[in-house]
Amino acid sequence: MPVIPFVSPKGGCGKSTSAVLLASYLAESGRSVTIIDADPNRPVSRWSKRPGKPKNLSVLENVTEETIIKTIDRVRAGTEYVIVDLEGTASLMVAYAISRANLVVIPTQGSMLDAAEAVKAIRLVKRQEEAFKLTIPCAVLLTRTNAALRPRALNAIEAEFVENGVKVFDVRLHEREAFRAVFSFGGTLSTLDPANVSNLKAARVNAEAFAVEAMGMIGSERKAA
């Protein structure tokens, strides 16, 4: 079953947020999903202990560098999708998770500094491809963008990725209060109260578009394989 690690050497780029948004969408669409929380800060595990987590979505924590591969292999045998939220560093654990990936998502904010960190993640994926003689699809996800503006600098970063053969999500995850509210109140975008969160409908549309594109990438790669 598909394994989707969220990878970036830089913290605060939206790995946990995008991982939970994708997992929630899949679970609410009727799929069984497991998130492996391999981030030492455990944001996904804390979210999972709040009310409202979909019943068919499980969260595992306390994985280590020594157990990550066995954990992924065991979990993927019994669940439809495995999502791995990794630590913000280029560690062996991250490399091991990448080696099992059907799609590596690389969240990055729209600055040259963040783009440089995304390049490090892409290079790590390429090294795993060489080491394991695999083709490992990866794509950059631009996060915390402005829904109303498309700054020239951000467009230039995106164009440079594309020119260098790096896949970039067409969908950008915008800066949304609702995405933060999920971690504050628990549950999913579908269970948040519109009276307490602004622009909730727009956030749901944005998250669904990201999830649909991610599933399309996985479907395309599996057909090609």
Give an overview of the whole structure.
With 225 residues, the protein is an alpha/beta fold. It has one domain (3-224): Rossmann fold (3-Layer(aba) Sandwich), CATH 3.40.50.300. It contains 8 helices and 7 strands; from the N terminus they run E-H-E-H-E-H-E-H-E-H-E-H-E-H-H. The chain has helices spanning 15-28, 43-48, 68-76, 92-98, 112-132, 152-163, 177-185, 200-224, and strands at residues 3-6, 33-38, 57-60, 81-86, 104-109, 138-145, 173-174. A 4-stranded parallel sheet has the order 1-4-2-3, sandwiched between helices. Strands 5-6-7 form a 3-stranded parallel sheet. Helix 6 links the parallel strand 6 and strand 7. Helix 1 (15-28) packs across helix 8 (200-224). The chain starts with a strand and ends with a helix.
Q: Domains counted in the coordinates: how many?
A: 1
What is the 3D form? globular
Mean pLDDT: 92
**pLDDT below 50 for ≥5 consecutive residues: which ranges?**
none
> What characterizes the major β-sheet?
4 strands, parallel
In CATH terms, what is the fold-level topology? Answer: Rossmann fold
CATH class: Alpha Beta
Share of β-strand residues: 15-25%
Please identify, by name, the CATH architecture: 3-Layer(aba) Sandwich
